[in-house]
TrEMBL record:
Superkingdom of the source species: Bacteria
SUPFAM superfamilies: C-terminal effector domain of the bipartite response regulators
PANTHER family in alphabetical order: PHOSPHATE REGULON TRANSCRIPTIONAL REGULATORY PROTEIN PHOB, REGULATOR OF RPOS
Name of the molecule in the record: Response regulator receiver protein
DNA-binding region extent: 54-152
OmpR/PhoB-type domain mapped to chain residues: 54-152
Family annotation (InterPro entries): OmpR/PhoB-type_DNA-bd, Sig_transdc_resp-reg_C-effctor, WalR-like, WH-like_DNA-bd_sf
GO biological process, one term: regulation of DNA-templated transcription
Species the sequence originates in: Halorhodospira halophila (strain DSM 244 / SL1) (Ectothiorhodospira halophila (strain DSM 244 / SL1))
Amino acid sequence: MNNGCFETLLASVPRLTSGQRQALLRALMSETAAGGPDPVSTCGDGGAAHSGPAESLSVRGLVIDPARHEARVEGRAVELSRTQFRLLHFLAAHRHRVVTRDELIRGVWGPRAYLESRTVDAHVRRLRQALRPAGYDRMIRTVRGVGYHLDSSRAEKEAA
């Protein structure tokens, strides 16, 4: 399919906003250019990549355990939704660099998700709120115009 076919197809879906159409068009074009995944293999999980049981990640006392689907600070569980957990895990797995909003969309929601980049901002805000009681909300640093970075040097706990 070429770009014109995608645009015609997307124009026929009346409930999508122009931003959603653009995001979906980008996702479809990138999948086509890369050979794209098998639509059946990503059905049901949002298209997010899963590579079996992942190891726990630890960042300044914050332990993220994908096998148990939990985050803990000093042994105490941090209440996170499924999306918040996946977002935190993705940021922690890529903590040595800035992660763009598009990378977060593909990594957390999957390559077939058509979310606007501002939706990511709302989810990050809620993740920060969930981490605030434990003092870890400042670890998620916004890089204006680019995305986010999990900066372990900004944890509130280190100041204590």
